[in-house]
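With this grant's support, we have settled on a layout for protein records. An illustrative entry appears below exactly as we store it:
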Amino acid sequence: MTSRSLKIALAVSVALNVFAVAAGAAVWVERDKIEDRVAEAHKPGRSEPVWDVIERMDPAVRDQVKARLRAAAMQARPDFDEARAARREAIALTGGETFDPVAVAALLERSRASEARGRSRLETGAVETLNQLSPADRKALAPILSRHKAKREARKPEKADKPVAPVAAASAAR
């Protein structure tokens, strides 16, 4: 074997090893994500997306349920928009040069009240929709009344890792 062929073989070997290491790292990272999804799927509460359950219903009932749930969501939308706007305003006031804790607290209270109003409208619409269904359909759709917090719970470990002491020390220094 010549020196040139040995160099080519070495380069090919290094390239394959780099590829294998990158593939292994990608599999390792994705495995964690898949394990999280599997764990989430086995949590009590919603076992599958509600829209998937609705899609399997009788077409006449399905269309009626979709229309009613969408109507309830559209009625609640202004409340959720108001809640987000009040929260954004509170964040903006907090980030300004001067801090008015009374105004920020009032905006946050308004945000919570608007969100509660919106959630109430959604739940009332869901109950009215469920009232029109057969017991089997009601049982299948009952999880729409649960408050699914998977996205918020998934973020909690990240927040728990952040140190709290510097924030407390900064507020104590004021």
In short: The helical segments are 3-41, 50-55, 59-94, 101-131, 135-141, 150-161, 165-173. Residues 149-155, 158-174 have pLDDT under 50 and may be disordered. The chain is about 80% helix and 0% strand. The two ends are 76 Å apart (CA to CA).
